[in-house]
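Budget justification note: compute hours in this period were largely spent on complex prediction jobs such as the one shown. Inputs:
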Amino acid sequence: MPDQLLEVRDLTVSYDTGEHPVVAVDHVDLDVQAGEFVGIVGESGCGKSTLLFAIAQLLSSPAAITGGSVKFLGQNLVTMSEKKLAALRWRDFSVVMQSAMNALNPVKSIGAQFQDTIMAHDEVVDDNRPAEVLRLVGIDPIHLKSYPHQLSGGMRQRAMIAMALLFTPDLIIMDEPTSALDVVAQRSLMVQIKELQRKLGFAVIFVTHDMSLVSHFSDKLVVMYAGQVVEFGDTRAVFDHPEHPYSEGLLDAFPSIRGPKVPLTGIPGAPPNLASPPPGCRFQPRCPKAFEDCPKIEPELYQVGAVQSRCLLHAPSIESAKEVS
Amino acid sequence: MTSVDVEPGVTESAATPVIEARDLSRHFRVGRGFFSKQQLHAVDNVSFSIGRQEIVALAGESGSGKSTIARLLAGVYKPTGGEIFYQGRPMSSFKSRKDQLSYRGDVPMVFQDPFSSLNPAFRVSHGVLRSLKLHRPELTRQQRQDEAAQVIEAVGLTPAGDIMDRYPYELSGGQRQRIGFAQALAHKPKLILADEPVSMLDVSIRIGLLNLMAELRSSAGVSFLYITHDIASARYVADRLMIMYAGHIVETGPAESVLANPKHPYTDLLLGAVPDPRAPLSLGIEGDTGEPPKVVDPTPGCRFRWRCPLAIDRCHVETPVLRRLGENHEAACHVAEADAGVAG
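Corresponding output:
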């Protein structure tokens, strides 16, 4: 197996809304190695779910990929035919959606839904496989006969993950799988995903708005804002030294259970309307560290130590200018 | 007897809590068939009180009975046992429409999901104006408009005139939830029941709403029952913390004291579940995949014993009750009791 599992280059997705197309994903690069856990974080509307859908080729009109490529195991998914994609889905990569409540069919038993997935592929699958994957995620196989409403929220979400594991894919894409769960169920699901990943060796792309959730689980972290990647690096590096004011804001957005109680402000304001993004840096209207150049110059991703940050504070020329002043 | 909306004497009000629950229970009949005798104990013998301008957090997992308590206090459910006292008066004595209306105006509820709790067909001012019309009929149309603009500004939505004329789909989740608070605030409440008001929102805007609650407490003089499964946010806003498990309150006390020195193993479990990026990297695979049990026709014994790492024989035969283990700090656990040297 090649080490490079997924290679996303310059991926751009637009929503065609007539006069002003909304660019929801703006020239995003992303690499995922085999067995890696990549977290993508950002607020609602930052384009993180659109990015996932674009990677999995699940976009529907008016959204469309307008540029770039998604190479999965060396093949470009963007130009691939629907038929070939159908063969890849579930077998080589699978997607776990945000709300298992809506992702599972309410009038079919869990087992019947597993069978549907198996029948859609030519692979020969052991009859015991459905029971086996349910056991993997810690659900009694007796629930193959159960309907979604008979399971709790956490179990439904685990059943979805079991389904994603049917063919032991190389990559599982997860879109906020824990957002409907309480903290305890959330924690136990995260631990379980990580354990399964260790055991089976698949790679994970995990999207969430809660940065602290992935802090202990992901290897790489991508912070998105207004359709762009604003910070990228090893998870621990980003957490220890966030180099973009937005990542800093996300990290400080929520109280800790330890240490002194400090008043917090979160990140005031809302993400910009992507039909008319602000000039220069897109975070500048909300940024506590903005200076006069921010509305004028559009920042690129600059290398800062171990991480990349899209912030003018780290632009090479500005850096030297600051030292002079 | 004074009407509910009339302030009782000052000396009395300082001592009487806004709301007090004594031995509150709510059981639901479950099981197959009309003659089923099975009872689901959603809330069992719960007692607590909320003082003036106090923020009390009620924390626990999904299915622990938190929302049932909120609904009991809001009068959506009738208790099957025990009694709720509002400013010293038993709630079961509120028979007249006037009493019930004024109670509901005094104790409104803010719901979890801002996306489905506002009517999409009406402007956002609709809910605020409607409740003003119902609860404060003495106001003229213009006064209602002014009052609505004022509360919408009070919850941090400016300019109020512009916001009032929008439809829910034009607002973000955080703004919609603020409208939820504005609706509750319109009739000058005494206690707001906030049922997971931030759990559907992005982490980055949750803090704004928590700050809003703290602000309203001092500016509008309301008390809050803040229901949450996230104990970190409870610590941030609440004075007092009540931890609930399977229909029982298992630990209660000042927020700082409960979190710094948790007595009940369930509180430990909740604390361990909070993701904390500042904590050192430790993949604590405790393997706890349990869920709160559905308490149908319970037998005596601690309800947490199946998930409890400390369970002893006594936990299987005797239900622990809340005992004082520190300054205003109570827990219902046999092991914690023995540790603290309290005679059982």
